[in-house]
Automatic annotation (TrEMBL):
N-acetyltransferase domain: residues covered: 1-94, 6-93
Gene source species: Sphingobacterium haloxyli
GO molecular function, one term: acyltransferase activity, transferring groups other than amino-acyl groups
Stored CDD domains: NAT_SF (cd04301)
Claim: Transferase is one of the keywords in the record: yes
InterPro entries according to UniProt: Acyl_CoA_acyltransferase, Gcn5-rel_NAT, GNAT_dom, GNAT_YJDJ
One family name in Pfam for this protein: Acetyltransf_CG
Protein name in the entry: GNAT family N-acetyltransferase
Keyword NADP: no
Signal peptide: none
Length: 94
């Protein structure tokens, strides 16, 4: 599974692909120089239960750490992941 980050204007996304097939996408809005808002997650039905959403979130968290960005998880999936995993709370906007 490969997860690529894409940015276009004030929007960004993490796109998961496997063998050139899209497995999922997590989108975010750039709310300022040090803040993004994760607003949507979708995983293709064939990839449900394979950790695709978590992989996309962790790719965004990795980018946030490198660029000193905080995250607001508006998307219910992302919000639940931030509640569940302590190892990513360092980038959570308090």
């Amino acid at each position: 599974m490969e997860v690529l980050l894409k940015v276009s204007g004030a929007k960004g996304s993490a796109v998961a692909q496997e063998n050139d097939r899209r497995a999922g996408m997590m989108s975010y809005s750039i709310a300022g120089p040090n803040l993004i808002i994760i607003d949507h997650t979708e995983v293709e039905p064939a990839y449900n239960g394979r950790g695709v959403g978590k992989q996309m979130l962790y790719k965004i968290v990795e980018m946030a750490r490198k660029e000193s960005i905080k995250i607001i998880p508006l998307c219910p999936f992302a919000a639940k992941m931030f509640e569940k995993f302590d190892d990513i709370k360092d980038v959570l906007k308090s």
